[in-house]
C-alpha cells in the first residue's frame, strides 16, 4: 500500500490560488473564464484599495499632528512653561534663568510676555496676539528651524519695532517699514481698563508654516510688552526647552524647575506654576487625536466591507464549483483539507491585496506633498482653461493644514495593518471554507 | 485462491422515493483477488455505477459487509474514508472530471502532491504516467485543449498517481466517440499489467467486456459470473 507523508499547506495553497485566480495561459481564457476569476482580482483590488486611505490617513495625520506639535512646541508653547509674576524683576529673572539653564536636560530658556491687543494700520484693524519675546529666541534652534522669514528680520531689534505673522500683515495690508498702531488695555484694579496706544514699525514678516498658530502674531521685544501690558491683561512666563520633549523625563524636569523657582519665592500659590506642553496644549491634541481616530474607524469599516466582498466572492465560488470540490475530495482530500484550500486561498487573496495596498498606500503617503502639488497644478490649469478667474486652487486649506505635510513613517503601523488585513481575510474565508466541507465526493456521481 | 482484495457479502443498497423503495443491490456477494481485473456488465439502472461508488466509498450502503484492502467500509468513519480513497482507490469516471484550471501534468500530479508527496516527486511521477498513457507531448495543455480521448487518458493517469491497490473505472469510454474510445480501450486492456493493480471495470462496451480475468452480470441486485 502506498504510504503518504503528512500533507502540508503548500499544495493546498497552490490548488486554492489556482482555482480562485485561474491561469492566463489557459486557452479557456474567454469572457466567461475571465469573469469567473476576475471576481478574485476584484477582491484583491478591493482589499488593496481599502488599505490605501488607511495608510494615508494614518501617516499623513500622524505627520500633521507631529508637524503641528513640533511647531507649537518650538515656536510658541515651549516644552515647559514657568509662569512668572509681573513683580518678578529682571535681576531675579536673570538669576533664575541661569539656574534653570544649568540643569541637566535643559537646552534653552527664554522669557515671554503674552497678551492681546488691537492692531491697526491705515488699511484696517484686527485683533492681535501680542508676543513679547526676549532676544534668546534668536539662538533657539527650534524657533529658527520652523520660522521662515517672508520679509525683513525674524526678531525686532528695537523696542518700537514689530515682527508680524504673515496673515496679520496681509490683513493689515502692511509690509516692512510700514507703521502699525497697537492698542492694549491696562488695568491696575481689574475693573477699570485704560487703553494704551503704541506705534511700531514693521521690521519683519514671518510664518511658522501653520496659519492657525501664527495668524495673529504681533512679536515685540519683551521689555516693550512689559511696558504695554500688566498682570491683569497679560501672562508672563519662562519658556524652557529640553533635549527630549517627547520623553518620559518631561514631568521630572518640570518638578526640578519648580523646585528651582521655589528658591526665588516662586510658588504655585503666587501663580508661579510649571506646566508641561502636554498640559498646556491638551485640548488641541485631544481634538487632533479624536479626529484621527474617527478617520481611522471609517477606514477600518472600508476594510471590513472589502473583506466581506472577499467572503461573498469565495462563497459564490464554492457554490458554483461544487463539482471541482467533489473531484478534489475524490482524490482522498479530507474535509479539513478542502476547507483549508479555501481558507488558505482566501487568506492568500487577502494577503496579495494587503501587500499591494500597503505598497501603494506607503508610496502615496511618501509622495503626498508632490501628489497634492501635482493635483493642484492640474486643477489650476483646468480651472484657468475653463474660466478667466486666475485664482490658485488649494486642495488643503492652509488655514487648517500645514503648508508642507511632514510624513512620519512608523513601520510598526505597517506590520500591524498588514497582519490585521491578512487576519481579517482569513476570518472572512472561514464561512466559505466551512461551506466547502459540506460537499461530498459522491456529488460526482450526480454530475455524471 | 489468493487473498481477496475486494470482499463483499450480503451487500444491500436501496434508494427510497415517496412512491417506492428501489432495491439496487440485494444481499449481493462479490469477491476479487488482488491483481486481477474484472468487468461488470448489466442493463442500465441495474446498479453497476452504484456498486462502484460503494467500493470507492463515495456511497454508503444499507447492510452487509464490504472489505477492501483491509478497510471495512461498513465500520470506517468518515475521517478514515478519505485516507482509504487516497491510499487504496483510483477512480476513472465516465466523464473525465479534470480540473479546468490545471494542465494535464498538474491534473495528474495534484492527487499525489495533495497527499503529501513532495512537489518534484509528484511532477516526476505524473510525467512518467503521462508517458505511459502516451500524452507526454500534451503535458502543458489544459483540458480544453485536449480531445475527449486524451482527457480520459489523463484521467486514467491521474487515477494511477498514488499507486492505488484498486482502480475503479465506470464506463470510461461511455462519453467518447469511437476514434477517441479506441486509444482508451487499448490503455484499459493493458492497465492491470502495466500498473500492477486490481481493476474493476463497469462497461456496456462488448469489446471492453472481454478484458481481464472475469466478467460479472449485475441483474436483480445479484452478481452472476458469466466468464
UniProtKB/TrEMBL annotation, chain A:
Residues 43-221 form the MacB-like periplasmic core domain. Keywords: Cell membrane, Membrane, Transmembrane, Transmembrane helix. InterPro entries: ABC3_permease_C, Lipoprotein-release_system, MacB_PCD. The chain crosses the membrane at residues 39-61, 294-319, 339-368, 413-434. It is a multi-pass membrane protein. It is found in: Cell membrane. It holds the Pfam family MacB_PCD. One of its GO terms (cellular component) is plasma membrane protein complex. The keyword Transport does not apply. GO terms for biological process: lipoprotein localization to outer membrane. It comes from the Bacteria. Residues 297-440 form the ABC3 transporter permease C-terminal domain. Belongs to the ABC-4 integral membrane protein family. LolC/E subfamily. PANTHER family: LIPOPROTEIN-RELEASING SYSTEM TRANSMEMBRANE PROTEIN LOLE (PTHR30489:SF0). This is Lipoprotein releasing system, transmembrane protein, LolC/E family. It comes from uncultured spirochete.
Automatic annotation (TrEMBL), chain B:
Keywords: ATP-binding, Lipoprotein, Nucleotide-binding, Transport. Residues 6-226 form the ABC transporter domain. InterPro entries: AAA+_ATPase, ABC_transporter-like_ATP-bd, ABC_transporter-like_CS, ABC_transpr_LolD-like, MacB-like_ATP-bd, P-loop_NTPase. GO terms for molecular function: ATP binding; ATP hydrolysis activity; transmembrane transporter activity. The keyword ATP-binding applies. GO terms for cellular component: plasma membrane. SMART domains: AAA. PANTHER family: ABC TRANSPORTER ABCH.1 (PTHR24220:SF86), IMPORT ATP-BINDING PROTEIN (PTHR24220). This is Outer membrane-specific lipoprotein transporter subunit ATP-binding component of ABC superfamily. The gene is lolD.
